[in-house]
Amino acid sequence: MDKLKNSGFYKLRFFISPEEFKSLLQLLEHRQAQCYRTNSDRTAHDYNQVYEAYQAFYQYYVTGEKRNDVHPFFVYSISVASDQESSGFFARNEGVPFPYHGQWAEDELPCIMLSFPKGFQVNLEDEKGKYYIYEDIRDHKPLTYAFFDEIRDSIKKTTKPLRFSAHDADAMKEQKPSVRIGRDAMHDLSKSWIFSKYGLVIQGK
């Protein structure tokens, strides 16, 4: 049996303004999703705390001057429960690398990655012993997958692919990361310390 079948994650990487992020929280609130920090205590955060955490993460990158006294991060597991099923997905910040004069820049652009596993572990046993396979999560957690899809569609409607030019080895070269960005976030980022420091140029403002 192929253990790798249905392995991996459904993913969406994005960067949106705190105002746009509020509409995302409203979707979570509508489904009564619970948000937990991924620490050993699995500390529960309410929607205001999640919003404040995102706002702090966002502000670090869009200000005109880099702050060295903070290291922003945004990491949550999001639990969705209903009468029929309980499951969830994951949101965490990631860096978007870009070239700077022939090497990778020491800083990275920000994004949030939303992920949901493609597989559902099923434990089995045969004459050789116990083993497991991954079956399609959509068959086992259809409501959670549909909700993940709803969030993904909502983000896609208010964003566009991030396109910017960076200083490569000998010329400005367009970068095409698999990240979507909101209009306000694009405007804010174009005026940020990171764009200024590396001479980045946003495409299609």
Describe the structure.
The chain is an alpha+beta fold and 205 residues long. The chain contains six helices and 15 strands. The chain has helices at residues 18-30, 47-62, 137-140, 142-157, 183-190, 193-198, and strands at residues 9-15, 34-37, 44-45, 75-81, 86-96, 99-100, 103-104, 109-117, 119-126, 129-136, 159-161, 164-167, 172-175, 180-182, 201-202. The strands form four sheets. Strands 3-2-4-5-8-1-14-11 form an eight-stranded mixed sheet. Helix 1 packs antiparallel against helix 2.
- Strand proportion, as a percent range, falls in 35-45%
Using only C-alpha atoms, the radius of gyration works out to 19 Å
Largest sheet: 8 strands, mixed
The largest beta-sheet arranges its strands as: 3-2-4-5-8-1-14-11
Structural class of the helix and strand makeup? alpha+beta
**Element-by-element helix/strand order:** EHEEHEEEEEEEHHEEEEHHE
Tell me, rounded to a whole number, the average pLDDT. Answer: 91
Work out the helicity level. 25-40%
Uncertain runs: none
Write the layout of secondary structure elements.
Blueprint: E1 9-15, H1 18-30, E2 34-37, E3 44-45, H2 47-62, E4 75-81, E5 86-96, E6 99-100, E7 103-104, E8 109-117, E9 119-126, E10 129-136, H3 137-140, H4 142-157, E11 159-161, E12 164-167, E13 172-175, E14 180-182, H5 183-190, H6 193-198, E15 201-202
Helix pairs in contact: 1-2
